[in-house]
């Protein structure tokens, strides 16, 4: 297996223009969040293949995205200190894996990233009336429900389509109510008032514009070398994840017509399926764990964007 340390950005062949454009867009958002891209790399590409990666492989990938080795080392050290990564050494080499906290966080995201929402909505809302009498930190009281997709109807009143998973309601700190809109259009108007749907839609529209060139090139059968394929795949998932995790994943009945999130997901699936073979070939040939080459991904990996 080639030593990934030899595959530096200086010796690697030029990247395809579609990939260069995605890298430029990544750097245009300042400050760049090196740590966040590293978490995406682990969650998308490394966890399905054993979960542990030599830092030299990670540096090779990040250098190809234009991130200096020193920034990578600083980022992984910070992630380890914050309990997102674990580190162990064998000789002079350091190996990192997602911690239990990191695995749990990305596992929750994985379901939403790679699988389309399922099920139908029964037309009812769940309302949580939170007790603000004893806790002056309203943001902390709302956070578990916000993470579960609840929106803010009033300072201490939150709402979500019924059937949404999340913290159990009805305890001493919250009163749970169910409500049914009088008219279907009232439900859409309520959703537009509670959730920032215009801003979320704009994010999906920008995503589709940003990745349209890549989508067209792949549709035409353009060949992407393994490193190009892996970088494009990671940058796409990184951007899709960033937008998706701000999306409350409302039922279609509550969304405007021609919701751009539908096309963003379809485009993500097309691109991912087109790139996955070549991108996995790069990992096969170059990525290393403490026991050697990474193990092959399991069957669940191959059902992504099915």
Can you offer a commentary on this structure?
With 306 residues, the protein is an alpha+beta fold. The chain is built from 10 helices and 9 strands. The chain has helices at residues 17-28, 34-46, 55-64, 69-81, 100-114, 138-147, 184-194, 197-219, 226-244, 260-286, and strands at 52-54, 85-90, 93-98, 125-130, 151-154, 157-161, 174-179, 288-289, 292-293. Strands 5-6-4-7 form a 4-stranded antiparallel sheet, with helices on one face. Strands 1-3-2 form a 3-stranded antiparallel sheet. Helix 1 runs parallel beside helix 9 (226-244). The two termini are 31 Å apart. It holds the Pfam family PaaX. InterPro entries: PaaX-like_N, PaaX_C, PaaX_trns_reg, WH-like_DNA-bd_sf, WH_DNA-bd_sf. Residues 195-284 form the Transcriptional repressor PaaX-like C-terminal domain. Residues 34-102 form the Transcriptional repressor PaaX-like N-terminal domain.
